C-alpha cells in the first residue's frame, strides 16, 4: 500500500471526516460520503459559518459570506414571486463572470430550479439553439449577451443584470432561504458540452454530483497536505509567509472549472474568489494576483502561456501564489516545469484533474509529488470512482494497453437534456460513462490520456496520438503553443501536420523542428506538414484547442470577448 492509499484509508474509515458508506444511487450500490450536505442549498446554509469573511470580489464590489446568503435569499424570493420560479423550472444564465452570475445560481438552485449555464461566447445562432433546447422559464443575462439572444424572436421573460438585477438583490432584505424540498438526485445544472464537433448537448448534473465534487476534491486536497508533511525532508528552504487563501477566477462560470471548482468549491471552503473582466489580459491577471494576494489560480488553456510570455512578467509581485491547477486539456511536462521555475512559491504544489461535464467534473486526480514523479499522468481514480480501459468490443484491456476510457461513480450526469438516444449511447448499464477519450492505465492505476478518439491519426495502419507529438514540440525552447492534427493523404490515409505558434520574434524552420521531434519519437510520428502562425491557437472555454478550426472543418466566429 502506498502512502497515498494509506492516507485515503485513514480519512475515509469509520468515524473519519470523509467516512464512506455504501448506498443505493439511482439503482446501483455505490460508495458515498456518510456525512454530507444533501443539496446545494444545504451547502449554502453551512457557509454562514464563514461569517464576515470575503466570498466574492469584482472590481470595487466585495461580498462577504453572510451578505451572499442575504442577497441569495432576496433574489430567490423575487424570482419566486415575480417570475414564479420553482422546483424543476429551468433558468438560463448568459453572462460574463460576475457576482450576479453566482448569486443567481445559488438563488435558482435554492428554489429547486435548474440553472442552464449558457456559453457566454456563443453566437446569436448558438444562443437561439440553446434557448430552443432547454426552453427556459426565465433568462438572466448581461446586456452584451442579451443583445445576441434577442437577434432571434424570443418570448421569454428576461432580467438584464446591469439595470434590473439590483432590484432583485433589494427585493426582500429580510427574506430567508427557500424551504422547498430538494432531493439529492434532483437536477441542479445543465452544462453544455463544448460542441467542438456537432451541436452541444446539455449534460444534466444533480445536487448529489456537485456536493460529491466538493467533498471529493476536499478529501484529495487534505491527503495531498498530509502526504507532503510525511514526505522525506527536502533541502531546507526559507518558510513562506502564511496568507489567507484567495482564488483568482479566470475560467468562465459556464464551465465546470469555473462553476464547480471556484464558485461552489470556494464557498464550501470559505475562500475568497476574485473575478475579472471576461477578456483575458495577462497583465491584468498579474496585477490582481499582486493586489489581492492571490494564492490559488486555475491556469487553463493558453492562460499560462500568455502570462509567462507577457512583456510585463517580472514587474509584478506574484509571490503570494501557492497553488496552480490545470484541467480541461493536457498540460505538458515542459509547461509544468516552466511554471514551477517562474513561480517558485508553487513548486511542488501543482495539481491536475481529468473529468468531463458528463462525469460530474471528476474522474482522476493528481498533484504534488505524485505529479512531479509522473508528469504525463492525470492521476488515479478519485475516491468513489472507477476507471476502466476498454477495447472496441467493450471489454476491459490489461494495464499498459490503449483503449477507450470508461468512468463509474455516484456523480455521473443524470442524462443529456431531452436526448435519450445520446444518453443511452453514453451512459451504459451499471452507470458506466463512455468518455470518448483514449488512454491507458499503468500497473499502479495511473491514467494516461493519449487523445480523443476522433483526434487519433491513422497513418498507414499506425495509430498516432497527437498529444505525444505535442508534448515533444512543447519542450522546444522557441515554441509557445502547438497543435497536431491529421490531414488526408492519398496513399497513407493520413499524415501528421503540426501548427506552431513561436515565441516572440523566434525564427523556426520546419526541418529543424522535424529533427527535434525525430530525436525522441519514431519517424512515422514526425510531422510532414508544418504551419507557423503568429495568432494564438483557437480554444474553447475549457481551454481545449479547437482542432476543427485549424483543419478548416469549422469556422470560428468568436473565441473571446
For this entry, give a set of tags.
globular; alpha/beta; 25% strand; GMP Synthetase, Chain A, domain 3; 9-stranded mixed beta sheet
Describe this structure as you would to a colleague.
The protein is α/β, with parallel strands linked by helices. Among the domains are: 66-182, 3-Layer(aba) Sandwich (Rossmann fold), CATH 3.40.50; 464-550, ANL, C-terminal domain (GMP Synthetase, Chain A, domain 3), CATH 3.30.300.30. The protein has 17 helices and 28 strands. It has a nine-stranded mixed beta sheet, with helices on both faces. A seven-stranded mixed beta sheet has the order 8-7-5-6-9-10-20, sandwiched between helices. The chain is globular.
Question: What does the secondary structure layout of this molecule look like, with pairings?
Answer:
Layout: H1 3-12, E1 20-25, E2 28-33, H2 40-46, E3 54-58, E4 61-64, H3 65-83, E5 90-94, H4 99-110, E6 114-117, H5 124-134, E7 138-141, H6 143-149, E8 158-160, H7 161-169, E9 187-192, E10 202-206, H8 207-230, E11 246-249, H9 256-269, E12 272-275, H10 282-292, E13 296-298, H11 303-309, E14 323-326, H12 333-342, E15 350-355, E16 363-367, H13 368-373, E17 380-381, E18 386-390, E19 403-408, E20 415-416, H14 420-426, E21 427-428, E22 432-441, E23 447-452, E24 457-459, E25 462-464, H15 466-474, E26 479-489, E27 493-502, H16 510-518, E28 529-532, H17 547-550
Parallel strand pairs: 3-12, 5-6, 5-7, 6-9, 7-8, 11-12, 11-13, 13-14, 14-15, 27-28
Antiparallel strand pairs: 1-2, 3-4, 9-10, 10-20, 15-16, 16-17, 18-19, 19-22, 21-22, 22-23, 24-25, 26-27
